[in-house]
Amino acid sequence: QVQLVESGGGLVRPGGSLRLSCAASGSIFSINTMAWYRQAPGNQRELVASSTGGGLTGGGLTDYADSVKGRFTISKDNFKKTVSLQMNNLKPEDTAVYYCMMRLSRVTAIRTYSDYWGQGTQVTVSS
Fold first, then answer.
1. Which residues of 87-108 are buried (b: 16+ CB within 10 A; e: fewer)?
2. What is the distance between the alpha carbons of residues 33 and 74, in angstroms, rounded to a whole number?
3. Contact residues for 61 (Cβ-Cβ < 8 A; gap 6+)
4. Residue 54 confidence class, pLDDT cut points 50, 70, 90
5. 27: which of 34, 74, 77, 117 lies 20 to 30 Å off by Cα?
6. Which of 90, 7, 13 is CA-nearest to residue 48?
7. Whole-number mean pLDDT of the chain?
């Protein structure tokens, strides 16, 4: 069984910063992609940032939603099976539930990659 656990959400004033973290556990063989999505009330879930490939301690290709470029930074550690999202200069429109996602294969099926999700963490930006 694979489990993703997120932490770091909360309430912050506009212009403030938060750091989200996500740790995976279970029978994981390989992780191809780590990403953060968010979903605001009434909206569809959208990709915030992703990181694909790289070595044991990071690297790889990153991608960001246009709305967060220059403000958010994704970082990961493939060896520790963790991914973080540093969010700076937060705006009220960043308010949403943030979800961690990892595309990974399990030791029982090393060539089959599936998406696994965390439970979500609330980020609220308000004065």
1. beebeeebbbbbbbbbbbbbee
2. 12
3. 51, 52, 53, 54
4. confident
5. 74
6. 90
7. 95
